Amino acid sequence: MSQIHKHTIPANIADRCLINPQQYEAMYQQSINVPDTFWGEQGKILDWIKPYQKVKNTSFAPGNVSIKWYEDGTLNLAANCLDRHLQENGDRTAIIWEGDDASQSKHISYK
């Protein structure tokens, strides 16, 4: 039988979290109870070239399992991961590169 390990989040980290446990639980329940609404709202966090109209298209039929998310929308990955952060966070670290030798590292900004 597996055991559940619970780790306490240090206060200095918890204070910087974007959501608290109660907000997480509410989001989780919405994702279970009204998944199309929940994931429809989550999809709006991204910048779309062509916005989606359909949140998900799923089939779990034997021999025809298919899961498609936001299939009629078009995204630009670079725009969402990098470009939209330039104005406010251009000088912040976007990627930390670390070589095989841990003493070799490089911080790469969004610019």
In short:
This protein is an alpha+beta fold and about 110 residues long. The chain contains five helices and six strands.
Provide an overview of this structure.
This protein has a domain at 76-110. Helix 2 packs across helix 3. The protein is extended and about 50 Å long. The mean pLDDT is 92. It contains five helices and six strands. Helix content is 32%, strand content 25%. With 111 residues, it is of the alpha+beta class. The protein has a two-stranded antiparallel ribbon. It comes from Shigella dysenteriae. It is an enzyme of class 6 (ligase). Residues 24-81 form the Acetyl-coenzyme A synthetase N-terminal domain. Pfam families: ACAS_N.
Instruction: Supply the number of helical segments.
Output: 5
Please trace the helix and strand order, writing H or E for each element: HHHEEEEHHEE
Strand % is 25-35%
Percent of residues in helices comes to 25-40%
The gyration radius over C-alpha positions equals 20 Å
Q: Main sheet?
A: 2 strands, antiparallel
Number of beta strands: 6
How widely separated are the two ends? 49 Å
Organism: Shigella dysenteriae
Enzyme class: ligase
EC number: 6.2.1.1
Domain Acetyl-coenzyme A synthetase N-terminal: 24-81
